[in-house]
Amino acid sequence: MFRPISRIAIAVTALPALLVAGSLVAAPTDSLASGSAALAWTDLTGRSYNQADIARNKATVFVFTSLECPIAVRYVPRLAQLAKEYSVKDVAFFLVNANVADDAASLAKWGKERKLTLPLVKDDGTKLADRLAVNATPEAAVVTPDGVVVYRGGIDDNPDDTRVFREVAGIIQSQLREYDFLARYAGDEFVALVQEVVGVQVEDLCMRIENAV
């Protein structure tokens, strides 16, 4: 199975060196710790967080996902494992959904079905995504205790996610018939053209694909 090296893990592990040698972010950002735009967010349990919480951790990792993006969903098990491994190293992970098409109830149900233990955040109005300058899924931002973003970008070392797309495409295709048509659409989505499938059959097919991915 394809297991790319995690860029998040590298960024977090190298954190002390990064503070001396420089930032992994292409364009270094100002500190997020002060001013009217200081970071503040709330998870789905209702717990609120701010700069004080960031300061207590060696690093805080925000991973942006979407219920509609099969690539982002495919990364979730690996992210959950990373969160578990780094929790003992005082690194906090948050799985953030800023997709306007997803609501908090759907996100909570999705997390429960996958038995996720890391905090889930519904970023209504994309305030967190905007402040961290994240504009795609899956994408991550690593923040230091003093509120500086030292990494922003992909989750692993696969520059264009080609292998992940192929893996997801194969899984989806396995749920379709030989004469059904599957294509990649709008960069990070897939569209399937199926014939003679209506009503409940369509719902069943969508559920099978979602569960398989």
Q: What fraction of residues sit in β-strands?
A: 15-25%
Q: Domain count, please report it.
A: 2
- What is the string of SSEs from the N terminus onward? HHEEHEHEHEHEEHEEH
Low-confidence stretches: 1-6, 14-29
Estimated helix fraction: 25-40%
Supply the helix-strand structural class.
alpha/beta
Q: Major β-sheet, in short? A: 5 strands, mixed
Question: Which strand order spans the largest sheet, edge to edge or round the barrel?
Answer: 5-4-3-6-7
The dominant shape is: elongated
Architecture per CATH nomenclature, i.e. the level-2 architecture of the largest domain: 3-Layer(aba) Sandwich
Instruction: Write the CATH homologous superfamily of the largest domain.
Output: Glutaredoxin
Give the C-level CATH assignment of the largest domain.
Answer: Alpha Beta
Our Rg estimate from Cα atoms comes to 18 Å
Give me the count of strands.
9
The CATH topology assignment of the largest domain is Glutaredoxin
- Round the mean pLDDT to the nearest integer and report it: 76
- SS summary, helix count: 8
